[in-house]
Design goal:
The chain has a four-stranded mixed β-sheet. Strand 3 and strand 4 form a beta hairpin. It is built from two helices and four strands; from the N terminus they run E-E-H-H-E-E.
């Protein structure tokens, strides 16, 4: 498995800037639109459950679960971007991820932040 399968982030052609900081160096925030988020809940399939159980006995990375989590984060980020753009934002500041167990059936991944309109300072 290559590094591209374990990475994420925004497509450079998305037309929206996303940062984890509260400000964007070189830009000023002209308007705050408000909170935006992208959410997905993924269940684990039986094969990864069995594999995870065996790995937990012997140790090592749970590659199937890692890949599922990366895909979930990317889907949550895509949904965050869609919501921000639909509300007229060209940037999202203070972006964060939150990951929680959704019972025993799956994992909830939420990407959230503040949608803003920025312009060069």
């Amino acid at each position: 498995m290559g590094i591209e399968e374990y990475g994420g982030g925004i497509d450079p052609g998305a037309g929206i800037l996303v940062v984890t900081s509260n400000e964007v160096p070189g830009y000023r925030i002209d308007r705050v639109i408000g909170e935006v988020f992208g959410l997905t809940v993924r269940s684990r399939h039986l094969g990864s459950q069995i594999g995870a159980g065996l790995k937990s006995m012997f140790g090592g990375e749970l590659r199937g679960l890692t890949k599922t989590l990366v895909e979930s984060r990317n889907q949550a980020m895509d949904r965050l971007l869609e919501q921000a753009q639909a509300r007229g934002a060209n940037a999202v500041v203070a972006m964060r991820y939150d990951v929680t167990e959704a019972g025993e059936s799956g994992t909830e991944v939420c990407a959230y932040g503040t949608a803003v309109v920025v312009s060069p300072a």
